[in-house]
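Reminder to self: tokens first, then the designed residues, so the page reads top to bottom the way the pipeline ran.
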């Protein structure tokens, strides 16, 4: 009830309500689009369903954005974020329709991978802009609550969108038409998100201190990116707490990525008897993970208020370690669902706390860069996890020694961060 009361209180703020709506609608479309991709790349009859093929798919889709991500962050500190939300969603509408048309006419081609890459890159850029915009519409003690609610409810919205996409897919006969239907429908949500974002005044979402542009062109902006990127990285390192939080997030994401790849293979090749049933099993695992996300909404504000954001991160790492130990002992359909709930709680709870630390301890002038670094680390960790999974996991996805290693790695991270992590951000003099 506390979470609902907090949400009602936040929704009284008009600009928060608009930003919240943009995120919910946009991420519902994300979920629908991602289910279409998952069905296409991992569970369609054309896909190979091996650890190596999954690693290749993740690398192709995410690797290039790890290169452009930091540059996008500097742009978020120079461009009006309201414009980013409007224009990026419109670009996603166009690209989504092209992907759906390509799949419908030609099936899985290299062009589909390229277009999907562009769409997922835009998605990360959009989420970074939404995170950097949140402190402009909520401040003070409500920021922690907003960080607990908004990203988690956004993930829940993505889950609902994914469920709708899954049901839509199952209602369409197996083939390219199934994937195209789910992908094409996502464009409607992206268009709606763009329309809501357009209702913000142009400068409402920051950045507050935009460098003087005059007649500057994009070329002159790009000339400053390298210097701005290095400056932003140096600032985060000197502040300590944001950099350390990002480091913990990267480790957590790598370990989570290993489990995620394993869950795809286990769902398809071990706990099911075909691509359709494998997709159904994996959908229930994702649904269980969403339950864990929901639990994070309720628990994070309460526990973090008592233990602090840093203490809550440690608790989440311990919970994640426990979930992997259970899988190391026994793997059944039920144990997978239980561990999915636990790991979902741990992953989202830690993410909420990391978001709060980065936002709280980073000046608005650097927030765009901070969250772009966030996304680059997020993607790099997942790509690394997929690469390691490709050479360590059997094609059925289950390896008892691997789950033991993951449990130990989570526990070590909890001890190191809890014992030696900075408790207070170091003052930084800008010059």
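Designed residues (431 positions):
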């Amino acid at each position: 009830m506390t979470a609902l009361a907090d949400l009602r209180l936040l929704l009284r703020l008009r600009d928060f309500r608009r930003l919240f709506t943009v995120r919910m609608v946009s991420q519902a479309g994300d979920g629908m689009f991602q289910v279409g991709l998952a069905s296409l790349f991992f569970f369609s009859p054309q896909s190979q369903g091996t650890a190596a093929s999954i690693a290749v798919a993740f690398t192709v889709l995410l690797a290039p954005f790890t290169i452009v991500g930091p540059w996008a962050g500097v742009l978020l500190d120079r461009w009006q974020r309201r414009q980013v939300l409007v224009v990026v969603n419109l670009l996603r509408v166009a690209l989504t329709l092209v992907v759906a048309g390509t799949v419908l006419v030609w099936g899985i081609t290299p062009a589909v991978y390229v277009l999907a890459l562009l769409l997922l890159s835009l998605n990360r850029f959009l989420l970074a802009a939404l995170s950097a915009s949140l402190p402009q519409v909520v401040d003070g003690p409500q920021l922690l609550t907003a960080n607990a609610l908004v990203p988690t409810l956004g993930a829940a919205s993505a889950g609902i969108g994914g469920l709708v996409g899954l049901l839509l897919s199952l209602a369409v006969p197996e083939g390219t038409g199934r994937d195209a239907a789910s992908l094409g429908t996502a464009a409607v949500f992206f268009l709606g998100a763009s329309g809501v974002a357009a209702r913000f005044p142009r400068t409402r979402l920051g950045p507050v201190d935009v460098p003087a542009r005059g007649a500057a062109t994009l070329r002159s902006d790009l000339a400053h990116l390298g210097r701005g990127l290095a400056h932003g990285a140096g600032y985060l390192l000197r502040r300590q707490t944001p950099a350390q939080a990002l480091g913990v997030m990267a480790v957590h994401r790598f370990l989570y990525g290993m489990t995620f790849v394993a869950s795809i293979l286990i769902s398809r090749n071990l706990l099911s008897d075909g691509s359709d049933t494998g997709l159904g099993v994996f959908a229930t695992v994702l649904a269980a993970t969403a339950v864990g996300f929901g639990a994070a909404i309720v628990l994070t504000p309460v526990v973090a208020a008592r233990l602090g954001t840093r203490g809550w991160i440690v608790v989440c790492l311990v919970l994640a370690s426990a979930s992997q130990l259970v899988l190391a002992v026994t793997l059944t359909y039920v144990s997978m669902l239980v561990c999915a709930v636990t790991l979902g709680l741990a992953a989202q709870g830690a993410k909420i706390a990391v978001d709060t630390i980065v936002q709280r301890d980073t000046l608005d002038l650097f927030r765009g860069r901070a969250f772009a670094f966030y996304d680059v680390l997020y993607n790099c960790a997942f790509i690394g996890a997929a690469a390691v999974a490709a050479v360590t996991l059997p094609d059925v996805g289950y390896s008892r020694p691997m789950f033991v290693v993951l449990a130990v790695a989570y526990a070590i991270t909890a001890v190191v961060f809890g014992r030696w992590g900075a408790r207070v951000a170091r003052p930084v003099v800008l010059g």
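The chain has one domain: 2-205+234-420.
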